[in-house]
Write a structure and sequence with these properties.
It is a single chain. The chain has four helices and no strands. By secondary structure, it is mainly α. Helix 1 packs antiparallel against helix 2, helix 2 crosses helix 3 and helix 3 (66-84) runs antiparallel to helix 4.
Length: 118
């Protein structure tokens, strides 16, 4: 079986995944007035975009099954919302977890197509 061209970049994708994870967590738990506003997107748009990126990078960096990756990413979204209960000017919302799920689903599905074309 022929290895994908992206195989040699796996260590870089791992680093990018962990960087994205740390940046997304910090952005989610800093006080709202200090949080970055990226491109005029709504809060839910930020969640979806972040989890699309995390889903793609997770699968590119690690050999992990789709369902395990989805479970880990949604669990991470729940952790973020739980952390926001103890953060100044932040509130936990079920709709954020739903947006995280949607972003994770999209990102993991996009990986499938990215992997096919590379």
């Amino acid at each position: 079986m022929k290895k994908s061209k992206i195989y040699k970049y796996k260590p870089y994708f791992k680093v990018l995944f962990w960087m994205a994870l740390v940046v997304s967590y910090v952005a989610a738990v800093i006080p709202q007035d200090l949080a970055p506003n990226i491109g005029g997107m709504s809060d839910k748009g930020h969640h979806v975009f972040a989890f699309i990126v995390l889903g793609i990078l997770l699968r590119l960096g690690y050999k992990i099954e789709y369902w395990h990756a989805l479970l880990l990413l949604v669990g991470y979204g729940v952790l973020i919302e739980f952390s926001q209960l103890y953060t100044v000017n932040r509130s936990a919302e079920m709709n954020d977890i739903l947006a995280d799920f949607i972003g994770s689903f999209i990102g993991l599905k996009l990986y499938k197509y990215i992997h096919k074309i590379i």
